[in-house]
Design a protein that fits this description.
With 305 residues, the protein is an alpha/beta fold. The chain is built from ten helices and twelve strands. The strands form two sheets. Strands 1, 2, 3, 4, 7, 8, 9, 10, 11 and 12 form a ten-stranded mixed beta sheet that branches. It starts with 7 loop residues before the first helix and ends with a strand.
Length: 305
């Protein structure tokens, strides 16, 4: 146990390394700020107004970023940057969540951390207005507009998606981290971890809408993220996925993290007052063995900051 306050950098490094230590500025974490030891929970849910601290605490509850990132790794962090919306509108991932994940990756020894998304609107405007570009670059990430020349047709081998244009940087990364936002979606009812993979493909994505639930499951099976960190700090409860009015967003101050994207989405569904079993892609993904939706039977670590 250290006897002096940690600096910002020391605190992030402690979380990344999974080292039991008092977290200084984050000492409000349960158990005196100690990082979790195995067996780790299936899902970590942190409630707190400080977005960065809540994100770090969620990763700490899972044992630290070095469970997922090794020294020298090239990491791709995949947030939702689909629309030119500010954080208060809750249509894109909160920039502080993205920045905290990037910080932890570097602290665990990552050589390169890339951040990107195939946006649905003008990419430069989406990256800038969401605040993600500035926040991620401030902590050393490479935030690049998705390059059309980097899409390559690959075998997805799914029920609805057999082959598709996939962004090469996502599949070639040593470690893939999914950083979605929980929100309402007019077509699939909700968007979270699994729906976020639409931002890692090219081509005529609208053509997948006819079988959107099966497509979401196919893409989840193809893109195997090692870690998912869910932004539910503000949840868009209507008029998704783009939203518009801050009045459509409910402030919940929650960040959740886990390795099971089905469980993450099952939890996100409850925040939208939806039953996970009534969301077709969640039910289908669980049936295909991609994860669990039975939250009552999962180990959930809940923390208050």
């Amino acid at each position: 146990m250290i006897d002096h306050p940690m600096t910002r950098r020391e605190a992030v490094r402690a979380i990344a390394l999974g080292t039991p230590a008092t977290l200084g500025a984050f000492s409000s974490l349960p158990g005196g700020g100690l990082l979790a030891a195995p067996p780790w929970p299936d899902l970590a849910v942190v409630h707190g107004a400080d977005v960065r601290a809540a994100t770090l605490a969620a990763m700490a509850a899972l044992g630290g970023m070095t469970r997922f990132v090794s020294r020298g790794d090239v990491v791709f962090v995949k947030p939702n940057i689909g629309f030119p919306r500010v954080p208060a509108q809750a249509a894109t991932t909160h920039p502080a969540v993205v920045a905290a994940v990037v910080e932890a990756c570097f602290a665990s020894g990552a050589a390169i951390v890339k951040v990107g998304d195939h946006t649905l609107d003008d990419p430069e405007r989406c990256y800038r207005r969401s605040g993600i570009q500035a926040a991620a670059e401030a902590v050393g990430a490479r935030v690049e507009i998705v390059d059309g020349s980097k899409f390559r047709r690959m075998a997805v081998k799914g029920e609805a998606v057999s082959e598709w244009e996939v962004y090469v940087d996502v599949v070639e990364a040593d470690t893939l981290i999914n950083v979605p936002v929980a929100k309402h979606h007019s077509l699939s009812r909700m968007s979270g971890a699994m729906k976020n993979w639409f931002g890692a493909i090219g081509g005529e994505r609208a053509a997948l809408h006819a079988r959107i639930d099966a497509a979401v499951v196919d893409l989840t099976s193809f893109f195997r993220a090692k870690l998912t960190v869910l932004d539910a700090t503000r949840v868009l409860v209507r008029n998704g996925p783009e939203g518009g009015s801050p009045d459509d967003a409910l402030p919940l101050d929650i960040v959740a993290a886990g390795t099971d994207q089905v469980a993450i989405d099952a939890f996100a569904a409850t925040l939208l007052s939806l039953s996970p079993v009534r969301i077709p892609f969640i039910r289908m993904a669980a049936a295909r063995g991609l994860g669990r939706l039975d939250l009552d039977r999962l180990r959930v670590d809940r923390r208050e900051l």
